[in-house]
Specification:
heterodimer, A: 160 residues, mainly alpha, B: 213 residues, 9 helices, globular, disordered C terminus
């Protein structure tokens, strides 16, 4: 199931789709203030953009584009960002997740809350992306696929 | 919200759900569940819940189907036969009872969009009127999820990440035990594969026989 799909049509179409999927995911995350969207759906689109190469493109290419460590690392970073944003108001005496309590020179409280929402959406997007990629990699046993690729990867590095 | 379209969508939903339950081919069942999610997201969009609809289409129809297909490819494509066919005489009445209970409970619900509904009389009025002033966010759903009720979102993100990490802890193979575990796994799946598909085939014919009766 992992690795290059036999049909060239599927390979080409999914290779063309991937950058647009990622762009759409980022758009969905960033556009949550003004339309439907937000971290959960955007993170889902990002994860699909990372998983699609794994089931259609050659493995060495797919795992160089989106390595397996990306899942746990990005997911953890997203959660860390969320917790930092959540804890930041506590430092200045506000309540948990009350971004408006943070005083920033030149910014109204409502603007700070606007930016806090953006940070939370980005954090949720990262966490969902990482979680979904991690689950997919673990179920498909991508560990093994990467280990089989390792000699090839070393050769690549030697060439550089 | 168009009445005729809603009726058609509900019929398609029921058909997809029944097909997903009846079929012995798990890949077909996953395709049916994905179609189910897609039509549910259309229904959500029909009642102006666009945010929910988008999440349902992205996560319910997209990622969930992908993960289920990955799980099928890692295990087996045929569902096991039911251990005891008499089970349906208990399960079907239970489903009927639950359905009747839910329909009875639904008669007590307020109409959709009723301004006097309990949900519209509490804090939601403040959220709706103050969202733009408080947070400069025109989309109230986003300001609710990420500002007013952000502790819920924190909990959801924690749940998703915890689920992923526990899945990894259960399924990932340790490098030092690798050869041993792999040999055992390969053996097991070799045995389970043909046996499972054989019994699946037998069961398929037997259920066809049941339906014929």
């Amino acid at each position: 199931m992992l690795g290059a799909y036999p049909s060239v049509v599927v390979r080409v179409v999914s290779a063309v789709l991937v950058p647009f999927l990622l762009l759409f995911g980022i758009y969905i995350i960033a556009h949550g203030h003004y339309g439907p969207g937000g971290g959960f759906a955007g993170g889902g689109f990002l994860a699909v953009g990372a998983i699609l190469p794994r089931i259609t493109l050659p493995s060495e290419l797919a795992y160089r584009l989106f390595p397996t460590w990306l899942g746990p690392v990005v997911g953890g970073l997203g959660m860390l960002l969320f917790l930092l944003v959540a804890a930041a108001p506590l430092v200045v005496g506000g309540a948990l997740l009350d971004y408006g309590a943070i005083q920033v020179a030149g910014l109204e409280a409502s603007r700070v809350r606007y930016l806090g929402i953006l940070a939370v959406e980005v954090a949720v997007g990262f966490a969902v992306f990482g979680a979904m990629l991690l689950i997919f990699d673990v179920i498909t046993g991508a560990d093994e696929a990467v280990r089989q690729l390792r000699p090839a990867a070393n050769v690549e590095e030697d060439r550089r | 919200m168009i009445e005729a379209l809603d009726v058609v969508l509900f019929l398609v939903l029921i058909a997809a759900a029944v097909l997903a339950l009846v079929t012995k081919d798990l890949l077909t069942a996953v395709a049916m569940l994905t179609a189910y999610s897609l039509f549910v997201s259309l229904l959500f969009a029909g009642v102006s819940a666009v945010d929910v609809s988008l999440v349902e289409a992205a996560l319910g129809a997209g990622i969930t189907g992908l993960l289920l297909i990955a799980a099928i490819l890692a295990t087996t494509r045929r569902s096991e036969p039911r251990p005891d066919p008499r089970r349906r005489y208990v399960v079907l009445p239970l489903i009927g009872l639950f359905l009747a209970l839910m329909l009875y409970a639904a008669t007590g619900l307020p109409d959709r969009g009723d301004p006097d509904a309990p949900a519209q009389l509490g804090v939601s009025q403040i959220y709706l009127s103050q969202s733009l002033v408080d947070t400069e966010t025109p989309n109230v759903v986003t300001s609710l999820l990420a500002d007013y009720r952000s502790q819920d979102t924190l909990g959801e993100a924690l749940v998703i990440l915890t689920a992923a990490l526990s899945t990894a802890m259960v399924l990932v193979r340790r490098r030092d035990q690798d050869d041993h575990a792999e040999a055992g796994d390969g053996h097991d799946s070799d045995h389970a594969g043909p046996a499972g598909s054989d019994t699946g085939g037998d069961d398929l014919t037997s259920t066809e026989g049941d339906e014929a009766r």
